[in-house]
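Subject: Polysaccharide biosynthesis domain-containing protein structure
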Amino acid sequence: MWAIRAMEHAEVYFNILCSVDPKLLRLTPHDDSIYKDFREEFPDLQVDKLKEGDLKTAEAKQKWRPFCERFQGVIEDYNFGTLLRLNSSGEYSEDNTVLVTRIQFYAIELTRNREGINDSVRKKFKPRSKTAQ
């Protein structure tokens, strides 16, 4: 069930990116705090093209864990499994998607939106309509 929810979340988010100027998006009521804390904790992380190792190695997990735990009780489902595009210029696909916590998704996507990295998505892709099942 969580996989279906994660995929639906990814589809909705990507359609929004294709439709709206990403700089105008608000993902949570705590966007400013998430972005500020993320850039203080990860000032050099290049969020345009991530590698799975930026998120999944033992060293990366050790650094991410305290960041994520700051948002326990602040962000609903902060540790819920969420899909993230590794390369911000691409769509969700098997090769371009990694499972992260919801707060990691928010931190990275807020940064991509605020720093103009997601701007190309709207120019490159069109929103997808849901197909009848």
